[in-house]
Amino acid sequence: MNIPEKVLLRCPVCGAEAFYVEKEGVTVSFSVNEAYGVEDLSPEDAALVLNSDTEVYCTVCSWHGAIRELERPE
Ligand SMILES: [Zn+2]
Asked: Which structural domain range is residue 48 located in?
């Protein structure tokens, strides 16, 4: 069986696949898959739900914005 590789969306500026939000004073880091689902959530019990209004921050550069602005890998 072929397990399809997970496709993670990327920062439109630097291409990083890791983002964070501040949630009730806690920094929650994660990646976003192509269905706009959360991957690699840390801390794991953060119960983060992304929606179109969620402002996410790149962990590498100064970009921040909505998840619809993230780019698919080429
Ligand atoms: Zn970036």
From this structure: 1-74
Q: Ligand 1 centre from 39 Cα, in Å?
A: 17
CB of 71 closer than 8 Å to CB of 12: yes
Is 9 buried (19+), middle (13-18) or exposed (0-12) by CB count in 10 A? buried
The count of domains in the chain is 1
**7-51 pLDDT, tens digit each:** 999 999 999 999 999 988 999 999 999 999 999 999 999 989 899
Contacts of 40 (CB under 8 A, 6+ apart): 18, 29, 30, 31
Whether the per-residue pLDDT at 1 is higher than 90: the answer is: no
Q: Say how many Å lie between the CA of residue 71 and the centre of ligand 1.
A: 11
